[in-house]
Give the backbone structure.
Amino acid sequence: MASKIEAGKLEWRISVDNGTTERLVPTYGPSKRIFLWLKGFVMKVILEQIAKSMRNIWRIGADDPAKAVHCLKVGLALSLVSIFYYMRPLYDGVGGNAMWAIITVVVVFESTVGATFSKCVNRVVATILAGTLGIAVHWVATQSGKAEIFVTACSVFLFAFTATYSRFVPSFKSRFDYGAMIFILTFSLVSVGGYRVDKLFDMAQQRASTIAIGTSICIVITVFLCPIWAGSQLNRLVQCNFVKLADSLDGCVAEYFKKKDVSTNENEDEETNKKLQGFKCVLNSKGTEEAMANLARWEPAHGSFNFRHPWQQYVKIGAAMRRCAYCLENLSICMNYETEAPDQVKNHFGEACMSLSSASSKILRELADMIKNTRKSSKMDYLVFDMNSAVQELQETLKIVPIEINRPEEDVKSEKDKEGDRTMAMSLHEILPVATLVSLLIENAARIQTTVEAVDELANLADFKQDSKKKTGCNNAKQTPLSS
């Protein structure tokens, strides 16, 4: 018998009669084979899946630490409100209904301050209003004698119908949808429960006190412990969208007029593609902007934002940006035309298009700085004047499109008369792709100017301070109107 090490494993072999050796394979019983199979299954399937899940969970918190902070705040709020259930004096003080305070924390605590404020205010107001109406209806029902059940049932139907119908009104739904639902719940409990409960006023009072305790704890923790402001998130979202629009605009125009022989590595191509697709984030941000604007209106003053900051103006700015993003979407389609314009036509429009693209992207980035710093720009007038000048230059270039191009030398040599004319007419089909791109750039410039007006309106409504930096261009530059 001899031992041999192969591929890091110890192998035992035995000598046989013919002079050769055979590998000695251990034999296992059924129970041993089942154990080894289960061991391999647990190690390769279950443990690997658990490790993969744990890595994904850790990555979620590492990418956005605010999510982990929100979880800690929820746990802290529930721990504090549970004291009213554990301690006998506090438990007796709320009439044994401390569980309502715990339920309140669970349903109203949200990640942002605005969302928490919205739910807390809706819940408190709806509970007080529904409780008051429920007690009033109960008193009227008890005075009606045998018609008590009829009065109670009719009142439940009437108020439930009215509150539910109000949830379909868009302006009401965006701000008070949760309050309408709590109103229906509380009114039904008070009015219907009053038929069997003697001390109805005490029950309503205890329920209101527990809700006040729960909402107070939520508000204190969400405001004073690592607050996450919906208004700041909205401001940052709009700022990032301006930068993405600028990157997409520069990337689309540069990619279209890029020379074919210019080679780039894979990392640069991937980074360029990300910037080119940035306008899609702007197109998909409408719902997020509207939701954040509605929540931000509930928040108290914080940072550079006053209590009555014009959050709805951000929605208008977002709508103006999406109009620009639609132009960029069409620009990206122009890059994939099957018919490619001749190089001579591209060279004719390339410089003017790049100039307009650069001037437009500078305005978008300047608007991003205005939103970020909440300050008026000292050079916006110059940048708009520069963009309008680039538009006029591109329009002049459009008027002198070359209608003839040089023929290839091979075609000339194949002709008998080599001294003849070496030019041929250019078809409209060849000019159309570039003409489409030019018209989109001019239209995009006009839409950018509309966006500038929307941001200026925000600066006036919010009383943005004037930028202390000196103007870098002509102070008396007048904004000339854009013509398409």
About this structure: The two ends are 94 Å apart (CA to CA).
